[in-house]
Amino acid sequence: MKWEYGEISVNRIDLSGKHAAVTGGSSGIGAAVVCSLAAAGASVSVMARKRSHSAEAEKMYDDPKVAFIELDVSDSKAVTRVFADLAARNGIDIAVLAAGLLSAGKLLDTDDETWRRTMAVNLDGLFYTARESIRHMMTQGRGGKVVSIGSISGYQGNQGFAAYCTSKGGALNFTRQVAMDYALHGINVNAVAPGYIYTPMTDIYDKNTKAKFAAQTPDGKWGTPQQIADAVMFLSSSLADHIHGQSILVDGGWTLGVFTQP
Question: What is the DSSP string of 53-64?
Fold first, then answer.
């Protein structure tokens, strides 16, 4: 159907012919993103420090469109080398930057090593991978999509997570700044900010704590990796061509304010 504003389609996420680079893609949210991108027709390079050998991950690697590359995103030289190789072989149309480190501790309980490692992965790693993604997208001259995985902790404090919240707050503003700098080149830079999601990373919380957080969430439950992947898919597609520097909160309403179930 066509009308004066353009063609209308209810199913426009077709990534056939696109190549996506996904950091932190071997498990959890990253793995859900990889599977979704591949299902939409993209070829996907999965990057992580270690290859997950879970049953779900092995099924993902069985897809001929999915390839694994070992990469520590905090290693600038390694990131430069790996992304240059990807660009030379496949090009980079979509970059989903999902690598992240969760570290707990109030300020006085956070030692130098924990602070520096958190920043190295969550901020330096984001900087290195976004820089190389955009560098090659600029060279290719056909635009691209860069989507990072943020957190509700980029918007508000989270008691006992000084380094993590600081890193995610920085990542949120990084998204805005980079989006502004490269929007004219047809490169969309955005983020998805999950709330409490069932992943290996959130296994630090016991059953009672998880139930408490669910009760404080307006929709009454934790989210799933696939729900985050769905938002990433939107931002990775042509549906988001006019969206720049935004962070979509997928948090069940957590950041709306204090909530007490009726």
Answer: -SHHHHHHHTST
